[in-house]
Design goal:
By secondary structure, the chain is of the alpha+beta class. The protein is built from 16 helices and 9 strands.
Length: 449
């Protein structure tokens, strides 16, 4: 990717230089973020005066400090400024044509907000603070700032009377496409360096299978670059071996790669499939029933159609009945998507069970997502929890193309991009880069509104 097109989002913990420069330029007091900056000045002054007189007096009578032999020259100041966060929580980036909103919190809230050009200081849009609610637990009001109607690329920030300003953010026409390409290129670079984790390699293949049009073919040979890079990565893995316990997931990857690569190089794809069967067979007696094993079974069955794999898949049927918690694991999610899409003979009742559970889980996420990403009192188990729910929605959305799921996915991403109580850009911080691929891919291909 052209480096000029790569988005450089500011770190959430670095505010001072922007705020001070902007305040000095406007000749305004430093009041950004509703009183973020506390300047403490401590000074200690001591004067000891001694005069020469005609009469000599006793030391104890005239000099009460006579017993002091030394004095600390510099005062010791040991004070830590409490960490503060913006009262206006905005994502680091928004896409034109998508949802554009932010959250505001405070003990008091104004009626309006302003969208300001970060370069010029010009107010380019004004709007009303909406959906104001009060949290008894935290003693804070919260509200929403919506600016979907504003349609101009650039770098901006939001501000309100009383509560202050947000961090800078970007509005871009092809934001999600660019971020997807950035994340994909980062993973492919790890692939070239042979440092790509196995689960990220699976994420690349899964995203390619569902959203192949987003992946480039720079040399025009009708083979996506990601497949060529992964072919070299597979060769490296064959030479250097696997970590203990990775065998089922590696077998699933080889079988999926074989299925997706067969039109490009049938002979090599067949070799990969044979290798997948070998790896799976070598550990089969020691394997239990888990997500990676089931994933391998579904991929091997789709690629081969062998009844032995079909029978082993059927052995899981009782596990899936009256149980949807398995969908929290990506291995099971990817597996059921493979099983429901195969042209091989399948158990129709099992497919209906998968579809019902996936729809129920997606509706459950839809019903509680607002609490998960609440701007003042979010209830989730961290960015990994948000990503898991986003992947569940991605799977359901791939089947149904549900506008509501796309909108929720976009709000999840806004939360991960900084629209959260601490204004943390998890997208920048998280090492789980592969976890963002499906989320970004479904946003990149969403219909224009």
């Amino acid at each position: 990717m052209n480096r000029a097109n790569k988005i450089a989002f500011p770190r959430y913990c670095v505010y001072n230089s922007q705020v001070v420069k902007r305040a000095w330029r406007r000749e305004e007091p430093l009041r950004r973020y509703g009183g973020f900056f506390l300047f403490s000045v401590c000074a200690l002054t001591a004067g000891l005066l001694a005069g020469c007189g005609a009469e000599q007096e006793t030391e104890d009578e005239k000099n009460p400090y006579a017993g002091i032999t030394a004095m600390e020259g510099t005062p010791v100041v040991d004070y830590t400024v409490p960490r503060q966060f913006p009262n206006i929580m905005a994502a680091r980036g928004y896409s034109l044509g998508g949802e554009m909103d932010a959250a505001v919190k405070g003990h008091r809230l104004p009626g309006q907000f302003r969208l300001v050009d970060a370069a010029t200081g010009e107010i380019v849009y004004t709007g009303e603070v909406e959906d104001v609610a009060y949290s008894e637990e935290l003693g804070l009001y919260s509200g929403q700032l919506e600016f979907d109607d504003f349609q101009r690329e650039g770098t901006y920030y939001l501000e309100c009377d009383i509560v202050g300003q947000s961090l800078d953010f970007e509005i871009r026409q092809r934001l999600y496409e660019d971020l997807f390409a950035e994340t994909c290129e980062e993973l492919m670079e790890n692939c070239r360096r042979r440092t790509l984790p196995l689960r990220d390699a699976v994420a690349l293949l899964e995203a390619y299978e569902w959203y192949g049009s987003l992946f480039p073919d720079d040399d025009g040979d009708e083979v996506a670059d990601v497949l060529k890079e992964l072919r070299g990565w597979v060769s490296h893995m064959e030479e250097n071996g696997l970590e203990t316990g990775e065998e089922p997931l590696y077998a699933a990857l080889l079988a999926k790669f074989s299925y997706l690569y067969q039109k490009s190089d049938h002979e090599y794809a067949t070799d990969c499939l044979k290798r997948a069967s070998t790896v799976f067979g070598q550990i089969q007696t020691a394997m239990g029933r888990d997500a990676d094993t089931f994933f391998a079974l579904t991929e091997l069955y789709r690629a081969t159609g062998l009844y032995t794999y079909r029978n082993q898949i059927a052995d899981y049927k009782s596990f899936f009945e009256n149980n949807s918690s398995y969908l929290e694991e990506n291995g099971y999610l990817y597996a059921i998507m493979t099983y429901m899409s195969t042209r091989q003979r399948v158990d129709v009742e099992l497919c209906e069970e998968f579809m019902g559970n996936l729809m129920n889980r997606s509706e459950e996420v839809s019903n509680r997502y607002a609490d998960m990403i609440h701007p003042v009192a979010s209830k989730n188990n961290g960015s990994e929890d948000i990503l898991k729910c986003a992947v569940e929605l991605s799977c359901a959305n791939y089947i149904m193309n549900n506008y509501q799921y796309t909108r929720i996915a976009e709000e999840f991403f806004h939360y991960l991009m900084g629209q959260n109580p601490e204004s943390v850009c998890f997208y920048e911080e998280d090492e789980n880069r592969g976890g963002y691929l499906l989320l970004l891919a479904q946003l990149a291909v969403r219909p224009e509104t």
